[in-house]
From TrEMBL:
<feature type="domain" description="EAL">
    <location>
        <begin position="24"/>
        <end position="274"/>
    </location>
</feature>
<protein>
    <submittedName>
        <fullName>Diguanylate cyclase/phosphodiesterase</fullName>
    </submittedName>
</protein>
Length: 287
């Protein structure tokens, strides 16, 4: 504890913060061992064609099967991994596992992986991807890399070089969580992504807020005019789906079509989806 402070000084450090820091240090040291212990899992969530409802891609979403705490979501440990070089080994494991899994799928769906900006800076992601694709004999055209615009904050030129290398290998690049960061529009001039993923904070308000509808329509039109496809994240209701279809959003992802799951299941794919939400007649969004 801190000594030498005057009487009456408020010491925020104890005991709550101390305990929090301790828990965090513990998680960090366990995180360092978790790859070797085989505690990570990839879950896969379908991304469907907005017109036909066919599954086109599965996004790989990491989970940590912690021996004591159970299944932990990425929001709890990815930021921690990003603060050290732990993200490199973890990211390497994701690349390797996603390729191995996709190579065994019963249909040639694409696999979309999330790559952290720090991972891109600290390691040679294109080389790691190339090696994994070759090892598992996976066509590079079947892999998508999702990255947020924060990749451009530190060294934009270096980021563009890496993204171009991935593109040259035949991969697709997606700009994740579009609309939530800073000066999103200026980054669109730096690199032409194959697709934009509209953040689910916009999708959630569709149908409740007419300004949101205007914003989403503008994003879809902007993307299309720049030659990019658009994926809507977090589609949960038939109402949201109807609006997004009317706006000609190219792909949809969300609990309405499927939650992230440890296995890709053919039963929940195309045929079932066509009978489900997408079978509804196309409703025009209010102008
Ligand atoms: P993201 O890439 O934007 O992934 C979409 C998140 O939205 C996932 O959360 C997914 O489960 C959730 N989601 C999908 N549909 C719905 C819906 O209809 N409603 C709601 N409420 N949520 C939905 P998850 O799996 O917790 O992942 C959170 C974030 O963690 C991801 O956001 C991504 O940024 C990061 N992440 C996940 N896996 C990896 C990974 O392998 N590497 C890295 N670097 N980051 C990862
Ligand atoms: Mg993503
Ligand atoms: Mg996203
Ligand atoms: Mg997100």
């Amino acid at each position: 504890s801190v000594k030498g402070e005057g009487r009456g000084t408020v010491r925020f450090f104890e005991p709550a913060m101390e305990a929090q820091l301790q828990a965090r240090r513990q998680l960090e040291s366990e995180l360092a061992l978790a790859v070797a212990r085989g505690e990570f899992r990839l879950h896969y969530q379908p991304i469907v064609n907005g017109r036909t409802g066919e599954i086109e891609t599965f996004e790989a979403l990491i989970r940590w099967q912690h021996p004591v705490r159970g299944l932990i979501g990425p929001a709890e440990f990815i930021p921690l991994a990003e603060q050290s070089d732990l993200i490199v080994g973890l990211g390497q494991w994701v690349i390797e596992t996603a390729c191995a899994d996709a190579a065994r799928w019963p249909r040639p769906w694409r696999v979309s992986i999330n790559v952290s900006p720090s991972q891109l800076r600290l390691s040679d992601v294109p080389a790691a991807v190339a090696a994994a694709l070759e090892r598992h004999e996976l066509d590079p055209a079947r892999m998508v890399v999702e990255i947020t615009e924060s990749v451009f904050i530190q060294d934009a030129d270096a980021a563009v070089v890496v993204l171009n290398r991935l593109r040259a290998m035949g991969l697709r690049l997606a700009l994740d969580d579009f609309g939530t960061g800073y000066s999103s529009l200026s980054y669109l001039q730096l690199f032409k992504f194959d697709k934009l993923k509209i953040d689910r904070t916009f999708v959630r308000r569709l149908g409740e807020n007419s300004d949101t509808l205007t914003i989403v329509r503008a994003i879809v039109n902007l993307a299309h005019n720049l030659g990019m496809h658009v994926t809507a994240e977090g589609v949960e209701t038939a109402g949201q789906l109807a609006i997004l279809r009317a706006l000609e959003c190219d792909q949809m992802q969300g609990y309405l079509f499927g939650r992230p799951a440890p296995e890709v299941r053919i039963a929940e794919t195309d045929a079932a989806l066509m009978r489900g939400p997408l079978a509804a007649p196309l409703v025009r969004a209010a102008a």
